[in-house]
Design goal:
Blueprint: H1 39-47, H2 51-61, H3 66-78, H4 84-98, H5 100-113, H6 124-132, E1 136-139, H7 146-152, H8 159-167, E2 171-173, E3 176-178, E4 195-200, E5 204-210
Parallel strand pairs: 1-5
Antiparallel strand pairs: 2-3, 2-4, 4-5
């Protein structure tokens, strides 16, 4: 093409604080299509942004003003453990891509995993996406006793260890503590008729799906 004026738009390469590229080739990119990356997984991706990167992400991926971002900069410096910048980033970007309803479900799921919400409040699609991110086991109805559940999830190395955990009250189903060697997941415990969320102690979270 000769004698014509053309225009091009370029943007700076987005990088992480360690200098690596923010993109698919580095394994740190995600899909916009909810069939390829659920709204819950999408929300978690942004929520896990490092403190060193979160302010740049707010500048690039949100419509916050400079003054608002400056406020978050102060919060990151003084109270990084609250992760307010990450929560805002995750909520705004997920809402932009998937809408507020799906984002609210993702937030509720995240809170439920940390014992601050109710798994029963999640819709089936969100719960299914949460289960996909956790250790899980597919079990028939006749193997929903808690000894089998704990061993299948890898939360107990043996039946005897599972019995000890149950005796000490160290396991819960859908946020409710279970106790006793005869404990089992009942039909009423199954969320959407399929799932039960199982926790051992404070850190081990998993799920069982009825097959």
């Amino acid at each position: 093409m000769e004698g014509k004026s053309v225009h091009a738009i370029g943007t700076p390469l987005i990088t992480n604080s360690d200098g690596t590229k923010f993109g698919k080739s580095e394994g740190n990119a995600i899909w916009l299509n909810p069939q390829m990356c659920s709204p819950y997984a999408f929300y978690q991706f942004w929520l896990n942004t490092a403190d060193a990167d979160v302010l740049d992400r707010l500048k690039v991926f949100t419509f916050l003003t400079r003054a608002e971002i400056a406020e978050f900069a102060e919060k990151v410096e003084k109270e990084p453990f609250k992760r307010e910048a990450q929560k805002t980033l995750a909520y705004l970007v997920t809402s932009l891509v998937h809408g507020t309803e799906a984002t609210d479900q993702a937030v509720a799921a995240s809170e439920a995993l940390f014992g601050k919400g109710d798994f029963a409040a999640l819709d089936e699609a969100t719960l299914e996406s949460v289960v996909a991110e956790l250790p899980s086991a597919k079990l028939p109805a006749d193997r929903l006793d808690m000894i089998s559940v704990l061993t299948e999830l890898g939360f107990a190395k043996s039946n005897s260890e599972a019995r000890r955990i149950l005796k000490e009250g160290g396991a819960s189903v859908n946020g409710v503590k279970v106790q006793g060697e005869d404990a089992a997941i009942s039909k009423d415990d199954l969320l959407h008729g399929r799932f039960a969320m199982v926790r051992r102690g404070k850190k081990n979270q998993g799920a069982v799906e009825l097959v």
